[in-house]
Structures are given as structure tokens and as C-alpha cells.
Amino acid sequence: MKGRAEIHEFVQGLLTASGDDGPLADSDSLLFSGRLQSIDAVEIVVFLEENFGIDFAQVGFDKEQIDSVDAICTLTETVTKSN
Amino acid sequence: MDPLTNNSIDVGPNREAQRAERLAAIERALLTHPGVREAAVIQMSGNHVAAFVVPDSKFIDNDLGRAAAGSAIVGKWRKIFDLSQLSKQANSASVGFNTMGWDSSYTRGAIPDEEMHEWVENTVGDILRLKPRFLCEIGCGTGMLVMRVAPHCERYVAVDQSPAVLGRLREQLRTAPDVAARVEVVESQAAQLDRFSENTFDTLVLSSVVQFFPNVDYLSKVLENAINIVRPGGHVYVGDVRSLPLFRLFATSVELFQSADQLSAAELRERIRRRVDREPELVLSPAFFLSLPRRFPKVSRVDIRPLRGRADNEMTRFRYEAILHVGHDNAPVFDSEFLDWAERRWGLDEIRSMLRLHPSQAIGIKGIRNARIEKDLAAMAILDGTDAGFTAGELRKKSEQSANKGIHAQALFDLENEDQGFAVFLSWVACRNDGTFDAFFIPKQNLQGSTFPAINWPAPDASAFLHHANAPGQGKMRNDLTNRLMELCKQNLPQDSVPREIILVDSLEHTS
Fold first, then answer.
1. Nearest to B76 among A31, A42, A57 (CB)
2. What is the pTM of this model?
3. Helices B265-278 and B374-385, axial angle in degrees (round to 10)
4. Mean pLDDT of the region B321-331
5. ipTM confidence
6. Is A19–B88 a contact, with Cβ atoms under 8 angstroms apart?
7. Range of the domain at A71
8. Measured between alpha carbons, how far is residue B403 from residues A36, B313, B370, B419, B503 in Å?
9. Structurally, how many domains does chain A consist of?
10. B18 by DSSP, 3-state: which?
11. pLDDT given at position B404
12. A62: which chain B residues are within 8 Å (Cβ-Cβ)?
């Protein structure tokens, strides 16, 4: 089971790859702030599908669910509890 | 002869011949590389030279990895569109109006419904003017166009690569059996049009979809297939295309909108540069479409038109539609001289008066200042014109002051509905990067029933044809190619013949 640290590290890697070397707080907005683009959201979704077994076809998808490290952690915790 | 020494002086033809041979030698050296399809070298100031290189598509695809990267991009967009249909809002979208994913670059929120309604109704109007009966739409999405256009067609083939999106379309078609009877839904990538026979359709539509293609060569392949399956007399309609000549202006507009008042001009410039560099979507010059008749003789002519619409948004400001006329038609030809708007700066009322004074005469006006983007142009001019310290808030105020001198494109379209009896045509064929447009007014009785007269629009400068598109996600591989070419020149040419810069371009065909 992976946790907050791994999620934070993964998102930080995405930001770095897109040329954003700024600090990342877990509450920072990623998509609505423009730090990541829509096409980057796919990377997060695939990461969550592969590492947390989240099936978005089942749980639904809204950008808010993955807009920050905090939001992603909430999503993974919710899905894990319900399984 | 030199009168002082009686020796010959190396001037005129000899020196010119040496210079030409030196440039030709550089071109030959570049052309030995498998990544180079065409090369042209020009003398810059002093003794420096610059090389323009058209890369070889297969080399970029296979040796530099663009094909694999492109496939990954196509897959990512499919996943994004699949995901867009998993939200609560998508579940409750009304029939024919599922706008999930239509987000504003300015606000990052959904584009307001009233603006989307105007966009879709105008797009439908433009497609129906093509008088489609057998239509194929590539990238049909959830069916905003299908539900409105299919009732006017005998057969409508709706193609999309996203299963979730097509699921939504099928749901909607179940509520409208009359429409469904004319519609065939096909899950396929845009590049796989070879499933259809030659001359199957009279209209092929790619609306708001080519920006999600990975590169301009992919688009070329799709269009080659599209043109093949459209019968002579038909059209390929490419709508909602993001404009390359206006790309930097778009980035300036969005970044200035999003900036806090206190942001410095230097930081704003950096954000604009980053936005252009990081752009994941394909942004196209009208010049790309204008070059198609040379490559595909089945295309007889091309229209490039700014979008209709009163709404002030990124579609009406920075996007256009390209209409490819397939085969030759009997449209009347108009090749009148164009009046230059800059000489008289006519307002709308003056144009209206001009039409009243010459009710039977076709009138063209070129270079009309575009009211939709005046503020953005003013802001970009200030940003480019001075290094002086100012803030984004100050820049916004300054750009506001310089506006309101141009004409709104929709105001000209509206003249059609007045009693002058003129049909109005607007064009961005000239590819100007200040967004000025050309207008042509034709007395309706002179149209001979044609919806699309052949107007001899002012042509673009040759330089407009150098760059057909941006190269999303290809920065690293293109740098790799220019580095390899520079190394090749260093190894094979005298030091003073090594180009100062190597510029990758899409075409050199208009520069000779």
C-alpha cells in the first residue's frame, strides 16, 4: 500500500517534468491553478489506477478529486475504505 | 580593373558566384543527413549564414521517436475524453448539449452555456451552408453537431475514438429515433478513414478536433484520407482551428487575464513564453491549409474564415474555420481590387454607406482592424516594445485605453441581415499575425445562387508558409535534430561556413 509520501513524490515529478520547480504543498491546486494541464491529469489517473486499484468508471471522475495531493489522498482513502 | 594597381578586383558577378557556391555547399552538407528533406541557406548580416531545414517526417517519426510519442498523445486525449463523461454533470447533460471538457483557458472553468450555444449554432449554420446530404464527422464527441445536423442529411457517419463519449451519443440517439435512423456510429481513430470508399461523402467535418492531433503530419494523413472519401463538388470542413499567427497573442491574452495586478512585466513575459513552450495542443497556420491544393490536386481552393459570434471568448478571438473545396465547381469568380482599410479607417457606418452608394458592385476591403483582439494587441505591443518596469495591472489599464478603433467581425456579418442586399464574406487567408481580416461584399444577385463564390483574397507573404504548426511535445527531439545538424556542419564545412543557427520549418516551397 502506498501513501501520501509516494503521491506527493509522483506529483512533484510531474511538475518538474513540465518545468515547474516550485515548492509543492499538499493543499496546492494542480489543475485549476494551471500548474498542471488537462493532459497531465491522465498521468495521475493512470498512477492511481495502477497503484491504488481505483476504477474511475466505478467511482466517477471530477477534476476536483485529483486537484491536490490532499484531494488525491482523500480519494484513495475513501476508495480503500469502501473496498 | 583597379586603377591604382591594374589588378582585377573581386566584385560583382565573381563575388556573387562565390557566395552562392558557399551557400550551396552548406545546403549540400545538410542534405547528406537522413533527417533533412529540404534545406535553404541564406546570408545574414556580416558573413553569418542561417539554415532553414524541412525535417524528414520518417526520420523524426522513427529515429527521434515522434511516432511513438504521437500514439501516446492520441491515447491520452482519448482517456481525457473518456474521463470527462464520468462526472455527475455529464450524467445530467441535456440532449445535444453535453459540453463536458469545454473549459476556458482564461478562467479554467466551463465556458458559459450561452457562449457554447452560440458557438454550436453558428457551427451548425456554417456546416448546413455546405448543403450536406452524405456527411462524415470525425471526432463527433457526444453529438452536439450530430443531433442538429443529421436531421438535414440522408446519412451521417459519426466517428470518435472515445468509447465513453460514443456511449453518451448512443444514449442521446435512443431518445431521437428519427435522427438515429440516419446516423451510423463508428468507434475509430481519425487516422483510420481508409475503411470508407473513395467519393463516399459530400461533406466531411472535423470540428474542434484537430487541436488534439499529435502533429501536423498526422493531420496531413487524416486530411489525405478525408479528401479521398469526399466526392468532387463536396467539402472538407475543418472548424474551430487554433490559429498559429495569433498563438503568441492568445498566450499574452490569457496570461495577462490570469495575472495578479502586482505581477511584473518580466515575470509576465516569462509566463507567456512558458505557455507557448508547454502548449500540448496542435496550433495551425492557415498557410497549412492553403498549401493543400499543391499537395492534393483534388482540392481546388481553400477558404479561411474567422468565426461568427458575438461572444468574446477564445474561439471567436483566436480560432478559424478552413473549408476545402473538393473538385472544381461552377462558383462565380471575383477578383476585384481590395481597398486598404488602413488608408481610410472606415467605421461600420461608413462601410454601410459605401454599400448603399454602390448597390450593384462587389467591394473588397483588406486589413480591417479586428475589434475582438485590439486590447490584446495593445498589451503585446507594450510588452514587446519596452523593458521598462511596469506591472500587469498597469498594462491592463494601458491596453484598455488604446482599444475601440477596429470593427467587430460579427458586426460585418450582421450587414447581411440589413436591407443593402449584400452577402458578406470574411477571410484570414492573408495569415497576418495582427489578426486583421479582409472582407468582401457581393450583391446577392451577383452570386448566381452560389454559397461559396471564388474570391481572390489578398495572399499571405511567402514567410507565412515557413511554419505550418507548432510542435507540441517535440521540443527535445527537435533540439536533438538541430544539434546533430550543427555537429555535421562543424565536421564537414570550413569554420566560417557553419550556420549561426539552424531553423526547422515545415515548408520551403514558397520561398524560392
1. A42
2. 0.92
3. 110
4. 93
5. 0.90
6. no
7. 4-82
8. 33, 17, 10, 30, 35
9. 1
10. helix
11. 74
12. 87-88
